[in-house]
Fold each of these.
Amino acid sequence: MKLAIVVQRYGADIGGGAELHARYIAERLARHADVRVLTTCARDYISWRNEFPAGDEQINGVAVERFPVVHERNLVDFDRQSTHVFRRQHSLQDEFEWLDSEGPVSPRLLTRVRRSRDEFDFLLFFSVRYHQAYHGARASAGRAVLVPTAEREPSMGLAIYPPLFRGVRAIMYNSYEERAMIQSLAGNDDVPGAVVGVGSDIPAHVSPERVREAFGLHHPYLVYVGRIDANKGCAELFDFFTQYATGARALDLVLIGTPVLPVPTHPRIRHLGYVSDQDKFDVIAAAEALVMPSYYESLSMVALEAWALGRPVLANGHCDVLKGQCLRSNGGLYYEDVREFTGAVDALLDNPALAAALGRNGRTYFDTHYTWPVIERTYLDMFEHLSSEPRHHANARDIEPIPGWLARRRRNVPAAADVVAGLPSGPVLA
Amino acid sequence: MDHNSQGQGQGSRRQFHRGRRGADRRGQERRPQAQPRAQEQANRSDVDVEQIMRDIRSRIAQRHGIELSHQQIQDLAARRLESILDPRGVSPALLDQLRSAAGTTSPAPPRPADPPFTFEDTTLFESHRGAMRLARKLLHPILKLFFNPNPLIRALNIQARLNTEAAAREAERDRRQAEWNALHYALLQRVVSEISRVTLETQSLSLKVDSLSAKVDFNERRVRGIEGLQFQAGTSSGRREAPEPVRPTVAVVASPPSVTVETTSTPAPTTPTTQTAPLGPPADGTRRRRRRRRGRRGTGAPGEAMPGGADAASFDATDASDGDAGEPFEGGDEDESASGEAESRGAAVAETPAGRTEPAVKSEFDPIDR
């Protein structure tokens, strides 16, 4: 079987959620199929500046083809267009212009996808919100398998996406909440889909004592791993934690990741910066719990890693996906305000047996759903299912054509934020 | 969402009262009761995160009282507003208009039913057909032979202008009225919200006052009871001429609102405190005040003022004083007083000094009745 993975960025040192997800999947599927990655030359997801050389290369045994991005992202223009399509009634043309503004626009990449009609059995498109996934999936509808990594954010309410969700060959969802959101948005229940997520390379041995000594982590601590960004709920986390830290209990907050938001100067907040994978796993293993303050997640890989290491998770209860995972796994607590944050932290610290039981449940949840054999088998089963579909059945499903010139310019598309606000919400307790 | 789920199965008001009357009013020292439950739950591997979160939320509610979220207060206010704006007295259309007007900052002026009509000197002779227009133009001088249409044209022209101005004035007045309506509605909504919030706070405060007054009442009754007991002991010992070979050991188990007296016929091995206890009638006002203070503090040395079981009484007093303000021994709450009584009885048994024999005679009396 020949597979192509189309993703906006790709690299061994790129740590973004969807990009890392794509790399893990590519490397794992490469054991079962001939996998080729089609991506851009961009390294930075904000500017899409061409930093990698165009052409072929091998990364961890996977063939990668890079294509240049034709223009960098103009943040002012993107912000203006986002405000327009998210907040105001607009036209389909506005949405296409928004997508161009978001990028990464790489016509050569799209041409490569279009010309690979007989080269690949299936093409996996990661992150539906980006230009290459949308237009690439349209260019290869009969073979396009979408990994949307969609979050409950305003862009999901744009009118250009539902036809795509209805027209691709299959969708690999990250979570039940994501599937529920997309199905209620697009009414695509008949499109084959699987909730699969992604696994992680958990080291066989972790050494909590080593990192405690190495980083001087002598107090119990909560750990946050990821981009330190207000969009990830870190500002709220700092607020809640500093309020909690006024109490007598000695608890630190340890941060791992690149800061976009300034880390407050507080004696109980420690920022370790960017650390190696082994250090990251050791720090998580030594923590009382992993805290995930993000409001929008399609799947928190680091939460899965914490569960794999037997540590409980403290998640933002406003995020349906995280809350749903905590409830389904019985492996974590959640909070919606500072009092619940305090109460949940106290419950974990006061009751080590509870924390241990949550960690055990989390590990069981990870072993059942997110180990690599399970993930690989789900993907392979899906490909087998699609391959066995009758040709006329596969051909019957096609993406609806883009409306004509006049229809695209009719200002009758509702504000995307209103569309998303109207979608059913809450965790899915499947 | 979770606030709603918290309130599922019981109306919000009912839950509010329930929270304040139930476990919420228990003392700090009783709160860790939730901990063993969580511990027990944790020992089983089937931890229920939802249940744990419910426990955490109920503990938060106990600690801070039931605090309704802004949204919940808004909902409550909306319900009150509905009841104030009785649909029997107010037109539903007006209500809808008010609500919709409140949601928009500057409501658009209502579109006039017909476009403003302008009347010029050529209006009477206009036609979309060119031939007809030409014919009318040609016949216009003949028409003028019969009558002068100019006054008519002028009058209609003025009337059309007046109509346009009136429509503009009307639109402006409607717009202003809509703004006023929106303002009135918003003000009314805020007033009702504030009233709801204040009412809730008042209810909470009145419950606290009830609780505190019950505690004060109980303490006074208990002090009177202890004093009465001592008075009785002093009188009985005063009646005795000589030390008797067998002295009853009295264990006082104070339990709200009654006090249990356990009398044993077995001679107490040592009752040193009994000897120092003020057995005479409470004639001395200083001693009486001291005893009263001890009784209020509840931390007097065991048996200092009372023979035998005064330690049990002091345990209860400690229990009472350790609780939150207004928490323990609710005189007015039957459930609470019953559980408090049961707990203090259990505590009294636990505090009974080892070696004391089982009570041969057990009598209860209410110190208030004495």
Amino acid sequence: MTLSDLHALLPQLILALGATGILMVGAWWPSRAPWVLTGVALSFCAAISAGIVLPTVTEVGGMFGVTPYARFFTILWSILTGLTLLLSLRYAKVHRFAGAEYTALVLFAGAGMSLLSAASSLVGLFLGLETFTLVLYILIAFNRGEAIGAEAGLKYLVMGAVATGFLAFGIALIYASSGSFHLPEAMHGLQIDGQMRPLGLLGWAMLLVAIGFKVSLVPFHLWTPDVYQGAPAPVTGLLATGAKGAMFAALIPLFAALGTLTLELNAVLAALAMLSMVGGTLAALPQRNLKRMLAYSSVVHMGYLLLGLMSGGPDGQRAVIFYLIVYGIATLGAFGVITSFAQADGEPQDYETFRGLGYRHPRRCSALSAFLLSLAGIPPLAGFFGKFGIFHAALKSNHHLLALVGILAALVSVSYYLRPIIVLFMQERPAQRLRPGCTHEFAVLTVCFSLVLYLGLYPGPLLELISQILPSP
Amino acid sequence: MATVLFYLLGLVTVIATLLAITRRNPVHAVIYLVNSFFALALLFYLLGAPLVAAWEVIIYAGAIMVLFLFIIMMLELAPTPEADRMGPTWWQWLPVLLLALALVGCTLMLIGVDAGVAQGVPRWYATPRDFGFALFGKYALAVEVVSFQLLFAAVGAFYVGKPERKRRQKKEEGA
């Protein structure tokens, strides 16, 4: 470790050391709002430093890259961390969270996500993934008073531990086969006579199981609805956007390094994508609970992302990154609305509590509708361009059947996304007033809402930026 | 000979682990796991990593498993049913005995066939010094990340396990 290495890791250091500092000082000075606000400030500091402090090296410790690609995601996850904390300010007060601990954990999760997206070796991938998974185990069960939260935490812990076992085993097998942890050598080394070594194939099978668990692809998705439902809403937002997005951000260089060997995995990947799109859609249709519906719909979205990943090439990669950004914004917004309605005795999740709420709380309910419509991919909103990019890339790389299934799934998805909107605005029974929102929550929702609109109308600048930061093939 | 030893030890590891995860009594499970760790340690030795073998015994079998036993006994997670008060039955202690005997046999065989002593230290043998340099030089960042993780895991476990504040309980009782 040299000074230039530390300099290159500045954003992650701000997040991780900031978290530790808050934890330490928080032990003597327990308080809530000031710590959460400090956390917000620290995460925006990290985002700014990732943007303007240019690194002098391209890789740190042979594990984490400091490329523009890594920096882009560092900025993204730092901002996400900041928004999550801002969103939790009131939620933490209502639920009597310990402010310093909560802030520190969320900040550290942000550091883990940015490490995972920056991973340039399989060791880095493992470390980054474990960093935020470990924190999420705790954050999911953070609401100590509620049994459902503890249940969700335990489910995620057990499933996550099994997935970690698979991940470690897979990485070990790939290392045994190629003799390197570093990307792209670790993947190039798997090749023998244009085919993948059997040991490498076994390693990749284990890796795919672990990835399937972490991003919840069918048939590894069973934990998703329970964890989404049981976790505190801001944490669910972080889990649904950052945790899954960071995993995909790490998968893009991994698949790029694999090159033509991807063809050998295509059958399995296609099956996973197809099952996720079909299974997620079928499971989301009968849901009457907003969080569970979003959980199953996230499974479908992960199927789309996997389809984009399979398509490969700059087109596919750009589509995946764009998609996970717009999906992240809309999902964060949707969970933000749920957070802002949350009261001490629970969060409104059943459609029954939302009935007719659109006239009581028009601003937040309109925002929620916009987020849901964006997730469904209705044209003027950002989600449309995301889906368009994915299907375009899939058709271009001859995944016709999968693209067709994806388009059908997107059409059917309109049905389950419209149902809560109908409940909100078109059903008569005047609902009870829920909690009035506060300024911080409105600020976050405004940011998400304007981004969903802006990226739907002018996706060009972001797409241009993504093209520039793509890892070179 | 080394190949035979390898498969023998592999078999012992797998059997001991399978027995460990299928036992209902946590203390029995821990004992089988210790067996499995011993077999793993011998495997590491066989692969030319005596340092890892020593740690496997000292840290995993020695420290961590003793901690497990300690916690199981402290929290009384393995209450003995009345029927078992007379001590374990033969089908409970025989597998452990067989596995332990197999391990002792393997160790003796290993001492007999150890080529490393005759040929000098093998090329891939990592001294504690080499290992330390790799750990705190090349992988220093990984060590730092892991230590951060452990810190936050400890904080989280403390937070989740801590009982709710008394003031709140009083409030609820009063209400």
Amino acid sequence: MSDLTGLSLAEARAGLLSRQFSARELAQAHIAAMERARPLNAFITETPERALAMADAADGRLKCGAALPLDGIPLAVKDLFCTAGVLTTAASHILDGFAPPYESTVTARLWSAGAVMLGKTNLDEFAMGSSNTTSHYGPVENPWRRPGDNRPLVPGGSSGGSAAALAAHAALGAIGTDTGGSIRQPASFCGIVGLKPSWGRCSRWGVVAYASSLDCPGPMARTVCDAALLLQVMAGHDPRDSTSAPLPVPDYAGALVGDVRGLKVGIPREYRAPGMPAEIEALWRRGAEWLRDAGATPIEISLPMTKYALPAYYIIAPAEASSNLARYDGVKYGLRVPGDSLDDMYERTRGEGFGAEVKRRVLIGTYVLSAGYYDAYYLKAQKVRNLIAQDFAAAFANVDCLLTPTAPSAAFAIGEHADDPISMYLNDVFTIPANLAGLPAISVPAGLSADGLPLGLQIIGRAFDEATVLRVGAALERAAEFRHRASFLTA
Amino acid sequence: MALDKSAVAHIARLARIRVADGELDALAAELSHILAWVEQLAEVDTDDVQPMASVAAMRLPMREDVVTDGDCRDAILKNAPQAARGFFAVPKVVE
């Protein structure tokens, strides 16, 4: 039954509706695939019993013709979403044993639509990282390796477990979160599709917070259509997240039917980063040609503030993180390390419970918010953020979307960039600007690097125009004809 | 701005994170490196630019001032490392 795991989400849905196989069979095939994929360490917690129970419930509805939109579809959930009664770790030691008494809005919507939970996927601790190597539960391995080279590669991060699970065919769809590229960069590294919706499109309620003004839950999938089907269910206003947008949710799958004729696609010249590999620049150029062949018009544009996005992010995100992570104090949940006094207990708990990268960011954030430095760092970064958003607003007066590479490289070896935080941060140079401006953006697998690894292209759209982002993403997908499979599947 | 060992110890204290004495120097170097890098923002002219705290162009909505949740004390305390008589328990604060 292993061929069931090679289907797209849309194909599986058609198979379930026509009763070619049952939701239970589909769940069993994916539970087996999840077990085979254990060497990748993509899951922190597997929930096979729950998956089967949810699949049986879906079969009941499918049998009587009352199928829900995602009935019987097995999904992997980044372990940053709270799931009622199921261990939720954020890949941190400090959340040891935490079983939330509530369910995040996004996962609740998916289960209400009939989806089946396979388990909780690994990530960088508190979603802080670009390689999935900062997890307390160990690094995730990318299902892809360079041909003739056995060294394990990173899946990207922070949603590395979700991306690896999809590339290893251990789930039909997955969800992640994207604060600075955490859905799109792992999608690029693992040869899958990842969509960061507009900030506010999907509720953040019940998602462990990293940087609230940037965090976006979003879908990850193997096709653009699958991502659209997932977003359809995930999106929408939630009274429990007052920052979720009270806007109608369009028909995303319907948006894929249209073509891209007449669309203007901006090519931001500042994304031609110094030192960018020639093959990525070539792929980018090919992407523009594909869209031109499909009837769109590529136009070179300028986003002059691009180079300041990364440093602005590394002030704003740590500042928000230092505030959000103040709640981990050894009192309400998770780890407690006893101390002589309350403060001593706080300090020991946080000193032991947080990993090196989380500590680094909390300390930077504490510093830039502290008396005497707030204006020079935090306020300055917020002003630069405004200029970055204005850059995009000016560009979107003339174009309908932007085309860029997703990441400046293909997947790298586990351990690379480990000694220099800034060289790791540079992974997100093309993804962070969309977070700062709150814009929707998708990564679509577009080709292979010279050493045989997937590379993604990114489409950035106007705020709340996920429909155009998906439509142009689908045009790229059709032109790229990316049919390669991870070496984990072919070995 | 370069941070020295005592500055890092002060920040760590503000953040309530215990950092071993032997780790302070290495951490000071790392954090100083990151701060020196973000300081390139000084090149940008931001006179007359408003700081942007959120991309949302909306005002946060008001709702009725009524209880919408609660009555779940035991469910909340279930995750507490230490609880007593329906409360979170912490080391003694007042003598």
Amino acid sequence: MWTLRDKYAIAGIGTTKYSANSRTTVLNLALEACGAAAADAGIAVEEIDGVVSYHFGDSVPSIAVATGLGLPAARYAVEFSSGGNAANLIVQTAAAAIEAGLARNVLCFRAMNGRSGLRLGGSRDLNSRGITQYTAPFGWITYPQAMAMWCRRHMIKYGTTSEQLGAVAVACRRNAALNPRAMMREPITLADHQSSRMIVEPFRLLDICLESDGACAVLVTPAERARDLRRKPVYIRGAAYGGGPNQGDDLFDAIRWPEHAHNYAKYIAADLWASAGVGPQDMDVAEIYDCFTYSVLMQLEGFGFCKEGEGGAFVEDGNIDRGRKIPVNTHGGLLSEAYIHGLNHVIEAVEQLRGDAGSRQVAGAELALTTAGAMTCGSALVLRN
Amino acid sequence: MGAKPMPVPDADSRRFWEGCREHRLQIERCADCKTARFPPAALCPHCRSSRSEWVAASGRGTVFSWIVVRHPVPKDMYAGEVPYVVALVELEEGVRMPTNIVGCAPDAIRAGMPVEVVFDDVSADITLPRFRPQVPS
């Protein structure tokens, strides 16, 4: 379990513009976001000696960012071959690396030309070797197709409806309308969701997140260093990563997962809340990984905001809206802000805890949950100001 | 039309695909603790034994979950196939297998529906095990 409560902080954040076509390279996006995070913290680039990222073969190595920024000594420049489940894991390992003496100040980034360049899943092997020989030959290939199988299971077991999924899409879009960074700001209604075309049942178009070009970066430093820097520190209070048994041979594979009506959240929630010493009832905002609408339901249940199986009714009753039980995805999420693979959720949580979120600010926000992952494994953070 | 993905048999899976080619559904199980496993693998994840044996599966199971693909991806491979159904079928032997449900309107599929294997010779070398609603005997 995470034992570094409040010892490390996010001292700076940086983003690029989010778009459907960046007209530049992934490396340039990464450098822009990382440079902005360092400038935001007011730290000399010479003090940064770690860079951590994650990608699916659609980004640049961490050493390329260290080289591009001119770090004099890149001590902990590593990346995970991973999906969005690692978006919070990289922040955890940045702190762990500093704690172990491997680095002093660490940049965490995700950069991608996810729309104009290599689209997610575009690097998947259609040759059907290894685990893929049991899936792709049946036309089971894309991530929407993978996760629709999970969503269906939630519907089978709990009677969850398409309209309940739609409530998540509508809530995210309502928040995006307040966010100048968001790619999709035009409000939608439940009727719009219901009339959007069926892509892979049970998912309609508006159940599926955006594809985006862009980058996000956060700078992790020891708490005492953060207190000397330019911005109000946001402390890493609690953290967890993992999943249950039978996570499979790769991120797509969930053939042996015990029950697809719940996901990783159920398995890491106890560690997360114990590490933070607080619970779901204490959160002021929750930035929940929403590659698809259904994943929000499973994480609301898994992390204990509602009972297992009640996620559909919980969102349908408006409990995730601003001013209600738990404001979720105050930036619009992957569904409506942009798909920067979950690291944009951490950016939003930091802005909320700094009180910098402008017209989408949740008044007095002191504690935020960020989550990352939708299937067999994932990561989460509890952040505080 | 692009060529659709085809299984590439390997040391663990060769026996499974050879069985399909002969229209026999076979499942690997641990020779020591007798736990069935799918996909095939060198080690039993239950007892870590490396001794395994292949048993004839009944070919019957039930629908655990399913999706209906309406939007073809990649388009050049699947434009002529949609809508099609991908399911996780729970076999009587206790393992789950991804497959297609055929011979049934997508809207008629229900959780727990009894299905049975039907072999589809998709090339000279490869036969895919798909499933259809069980025909009452």
